Amino acid sequence: MAETTPINAEVEPSRESSGGLSVYKAGQGFYTRMGTVIFVALVSMLGILWAWEYFKGIRISGVNELYVAAGGAILLGAVITAVTYFYVFVKPRTVDFLIATEGEMKKVNWSTRREVIGSTTAVIMTAVILTVFCYVIDIGFVALFRAMRVLDS
């Protein structure tokens, strides 16, 4: 007889294992996870470049400063990679947030290209009209104050 799970029993979310590293809810939230990883990678490159320059100035007796700089930068990159992996692929609370975010983004009613162009044109035209109006009023006040001899010519 097959074993069944009661209807109201809590079921542990499945974890797929590959080479000893498990990914929580592996098939879900792909785009938000990859977007997060790409963003963290781009920002962390700046940190790694900073670390490279910072560790170049550290002198350890008998060790080439290039090795110290490379080692420090690689160590920082490894730490950032490990933390990113943990938060984006392993920690259930963060993963569930990313999955929910992707689900909500799919529900958004995005504007069409035509609507965006029309709205942008309206905003730019309004800004231009207000700018011209303020310029004309400014010229009028300057002429008025010069006529009243409040401003020097």
Explain the overall architecture.
A two-stranded antiparallel ribbon has the order 1-2. The longest helix has 35 residues, at 113-147. It folds into 2 domains: 15-108, no CATH class; 111-153. Helix 1 packs antiparallel against helix 2, helix 1 packs across helix 3 (92-107) and helix 2 (65-90) crosses helix 3 (92-107). The chain has helices at residues 30-56, 65-90, 92-107, 113-147; strands at residues 15-18, 21-24. It contains 4 helices and 2 strands; from the N terminus they run E-E-H-H-H-H.
Brief overview:
The protein is mainly alpha-helical. It is built from 4 helices and 2 strands, in the order ββαααα.
Give the terminus-to-terminus CA distance: 103 Å
The count of DSSP E runs of length 2 or more, i.e. the number of strands, is: 2
Percent strand equals 5-15%
- What does the radius of gyration come to? 30 Å
Indicate the structural class.
mainly alpha
Which segments are poorly predicted (pLDDT under 50) over 5 or more consecutive residues?
none
Overall mean pLDDT: 86
Order of helices and strands: EEHHHH
* Tally of DSSP helical segments: 4
The gross shape turns out to be flat
Strand order of the largest sheet: 1-2
Helix content: 55-70%
- Count of spatially separate domains: 2
Major β-sheet annotation: 2 strands, antiparallel
